[in-house]
Amino acid sequence: MTITIQLNGRPVTAEVSPDTLLLDFVRAHGCASVKCGCETAGCGLCTVFLDDVPVLSCSVLAARADGHSVTTLEGLQDEAAEFVGFIADQGADQCGFCNPGFVMNTIALLRDNPDPTDEEIRSYLAGNLCRCSGYEGQLRGIRSFLNSRKEGAQ
Amino acid sequence: MLQFQNYVRAQSLEQAYTLNQNRRARVLGGMLWLRTEGGTAGTAIDLSALGLDTIERTGEGWAIGAMVSLRTLERHPELNAMTGGAFAKALAPIVGVQFRNLATVGGSVWGRFGFSDVLTLLLALDAEVELYHAGRIPLAQFAELAPDRDILVRVLVPDAPVKLDYQAARIARTDLPLLTCAAALPQDAPPRLIIGARPMRAMPVADAQGILSAGLTPEAIRAFADYAAGAVPTGTNSRGSAEYRTHLVKVLTTRALGGLIQ
Ligand SMILES: Cc1cc2nc3c(=O)[nH]c(=O)nc-3n(C[C@H](O)[C@H](O)[C@H](O)COP(=O)(O)OP(=O)(O)OC[C@H]3O[C@@H](n4cnc5c(N)ncnc54)[C@H](O)[C@@H]3O)c2cc1C
Ligand code: FES
Ligand code: FES
To answer: Which end of chain B has the least Cβ crowding within 10 Å, N or C?
Structure first.
């Protein structure tokens, strides 16, 4: 079957099987930041935005996304650049494998709730697993980004 | 990972129902549970173009479309206002935001999963289900039935003032619950208690001895929690033993009923 998806703002038309996953579709079209980290829909590494809503691309059929818009980290470089340095400064990234999914969901969090509490951050990012760290570095990084943004606004 | 031979975005419920009469067809909810099934299925029936992703107020209450995501339900202002935030409390611990943006009410209820927070909560609210072929039936009755080839269209929640308290025990955040418990106090009916993740399906605990009939006092709550621990069958799985779950029945019942009088 033929589908058309707005991928990072440009229309991509391709032939897919009925059971092609959105994850495999975006990877086949140049979005290698999107990775598969589990078999149980539990790790968050495959996060993309489907019509601006963060979802697990490992669990969406490409066919269902036909006619919709999909955004990956490749299309959100500017928005990510605002805060990833703060997370890196905390030494939060170790192997870095979880990073793209984590950054995507952090973007979603900050769009939804520009000034989250620590508990709101933990709860929003709870579905992003990191096998190396204890999440504290990520939390400190987001907190220091939010603090610097507030200071900048004053 | 489950594989499909065909994909159909259904244009009507009639079409979805007809396609689903083939034993090899699968209705797609959020696909999160479905994808863990192995093997090859025939037609994947997508309900996402049928406008079933809305929560509407009807004359009697709330009609929650089968394709409403758990995240939408978790954040619904009126349903949370009606229940003291129980929707958010019950659903927010399920895996993660991206997961709940996909997981549907229809798939969650259809699955009748033993561990289900969703089923525990909706049973406490005395919900009904609307099936395409079988029509409306109480959720409590639906929960007992084995899955057939019908289509779940909506879940109906009565719009009646109700106090609700939701409790669940987990070994770790985002894991499946060890035990779930919801207590509801309707305005003009006796309290209801539902226990789930026993690990068997959620069940109501009837007050057969009238322990709570004189009111929800701390003593009555303690007595009822003891009674519930004896009345609710529990089992052992990798997350916990039957003995531990029975202990949790007592603790969570005390907390949930206690939450109703605060
Ligand atoms: C890793 C993991 C962890 C989970 N943790 C929890 C938890 O902690 N608490 C909790 O409550 N739940 C939990 N769940 C269950 C989850 O919340 C959903 O209930 C589950 O994934 C089913 O919803 P779905 O929309 O993905 O349905 P699907 O997987 O798409 O469908 C499930 C079944 O229902 C059928 N179906 C779907 N929609 C309909 C319909 N409208 N009519 C007829 N049949 C239909 C499908 O054919 C399939 O047989 C978990 C699931 C997973 C995979
Ligand atoms: S690959 Fe792990 S949640 Fe999608
Ligand atoms: S840094 Fe290795 S998985 Fe997160």
So the answer is: C
| CB of residue B114 inside a 6 A radius of ligand 1 | no
> Which stretches does DSSP call E strand in B139-231?
152-158, 162-169, 179-186, 192-196, 203-204
Closest partner residue to A19 among B3, B36, B95, by Cβ?
Answer: B3
Question: What CATH number did the domain enclosing A21 receive?
Answer: 3.10.20.30
- The strands making up B40-46's β-sheet, listed across from edge to edge, are B3-9, B40-46, B26-28
The domain made up of B55-158 has a fold known as 3.30.465
Q: How many CB atoms lie within 10 A of CB B182?
A: 30
What is the model's pTM? 0.97
Give the chain A residue whose CA is nearest to the CA of B172: A126
Q: Please list every residue in chain B whose beta carbon sits closer than 8 Å to the beta carbon of residue A65.
A: none
* Domain enclosing residue A144, as ranges: 82-153
For chain A, what is the domain count?
A: 2
* Record: contact B36-A40, CB cut-off 8 A: yes
ipTM, two decimals: 0.97
**Residue pLDDT, tens place only, A92-125:** 889 999 999 999 999 999 999 999 999 999 999 9
Write out the DSSP string of A4-42: EEEETTEEEEEE--TT-BHHHHHHHTT-TT-----SSS-
Closest CA to B184 of B105, B78, B62, B84: B84
